[in-house]
Design brief:
By secondary structure, the chain is mainly beta. It is built from 1 helix and 7 strands; from the N terminus they run βββββαββ.
C-alpha cells in the first residue's frame, strides 16, 4: 500500500475533521478516507468503490491515493503507475468535515 502520510500517533483527527467508522450500508465512492496500513493509519486516500461483500464474506472497499482520484475524475482514467488497493472495511475511517469550508471563486 502506498505510504503517503503516516500519523505519528493514534490521535489522527484534524481540527475541522471528524473521523467515523465506515459502514457497509454507506455510499463511500469519492469519500476521503484514512486507511489502516502496516505502519499505522495513512491518510489522503479516496474510495474508488462503495463497500462490497467479498467471496469470504468480509466487507471490503477499493481505495486509491487522493491525487489519482482527481486524475480519474478529470480524465476518466486511473494513472498506469497507481495501484487500486482492496482493503477491509474494518480498517477504514471516513473524514467528515465538521464545519463548512469557505466559499471559493474560480476567477
Amino acid at each position: 500500500m502506498p505510504q503517503l502520510y503516516v500519523a505519528p500517533d493514534p490521535d489522527i483527527a484534524r481540527p475541522s475533521v471528524t473521523l467515523v467508522d465506515a459502514e457497509p450500508a454507506a455510499r463511500l465512492r469519492g469519500e476521503r478516507l484514512v486507511v489502516r496500513g502496516a505502519n499505522g493509519w495513512v491518510r489522503d486516500f479516496r474510495a474508488e468503490s462503495d463497500p462490497y461483500r467479498s467471496t469470504d464474506g468480509s466487507w471490503r472497499v477499493r481505495v486509491l491515493p487522493e491525487a489519482a482520484w482527481y486524475t480519474l475524475v478529470e480524465c476518466g482514467l486511473i494513472p498506469p503507475d497507481v495501484r487500486v488497493e482492496d482493503v477491509p472495511l474494518a480498517g477504514v475511517l471516513v473524514e467528515t468535515f465538521t464545519q463548512e469550508a469557505p466559499a471559493r471563486t474560480l476567477w
